[in-house]
Fold ABC transporter ATP-binding protein.
Amino acid sequence: MIEVQHLTKSFRIPVSGKGRWDKIHALLTGKHEEKKAVHDISFQVDRGEFVGYIGPNGAGKSTTIKMLTGILHPSSGAVLIDGRSPHRARRQVVRKLGVVFGQRSQLWWDLPVKDSFDILAAMYNIDPVQKRRTLSELSELLQLDEFIRTPVRKLSLGQRMRGDLAAAMLHNPDILFLDEPTIGLDIVAKKAIRSLLKSLNRDLGKTILLTTHDMDDIEQLCERVMVINRGQLAYDGTIDGLRERIGLPTLIKISFAEPMHIPPDWSGGFTIVERNGTSMTVQCNRKNIQAMEVLRQIEQWGTIEDVHMEEPDFEEVIHRIY
Ligand SMILES: Nc1ncnc2c1ncn2[C@@H]1O[C@H](COP(=O)(O)OP(=O)(O)OP(=O)(O)O)[C@@H](O)[C@H]1O
């Protein structure tokens, strides 16, 4: 559905040193250097996937999304949306895409939300009956009624985001590109947006590529995560796979029905961090040993009553990979 092949984007930026004269010299000589914002990225996203696209500030996330949506032209490489290039077949591709840039609203600031929807419906040439039907579905999903007649500038951030999501969905696109849709929202509004995104993906089958700095968004929504760092793809896979790759320890707390017995010839593979009477905490590195293998060994030591597993904190995992 989304195919990205060796995508690269370079920007030409003026060369200038730190000093005032360096800057003037750069202006006079017109010297430029190439800055590779995105460098040789390839991936594929299938229909119905919910993929997180994460990376530190300046990693190249927005630049990628702008190329996927046809706003920016790649310096080299290709993007195909259902087999078509967003640059060459802009009209057809744009109909399949909904885009939300959390930092910038696509709604008209001084107009009531409804008027923005009318303008967008006209731009996309949406049939009036279809528009009414979609709007009534979206109203239910996003509870638009409470603010649809209010000018955008008077909306709370959460309401504005719901308005923006509705605007992105008005032409019923199959794919949503969401660039920081929860930025600046309080916990309650974040929760509401997350549950909405979940239902857009699960119930309506939308394919979603989500960019965010909020690791809870990623953990709660995405099965797959792609990490971009300095313009290059550093990881593409599951969240658990990322944890394993980084190799931070997993903690397993086990309670036994009676005092456990550790055989004297036990050779390890994991570490016992704490033990007392009928409970113990072990630490294993999933890179070296699977949690199931740890438990298989431990069940020989006594009757297990309860197991509690603590995965390494995802924030910490991301901190390591950046
Ligand atoms: N129009 C431009 N001209 C020159 N450099 C640019 C331009 N747009 C982006 N860049 C540079 O390209 C790099 C990638 O920027 P991009 O906005 O894609 O990062 P990002 O991962 O979205 O960051 P953030 O999380 O801070 O939004 C940065 O170094 C940025 O300064």
In short: Residues 187-202 form the longest helix (16 residues).
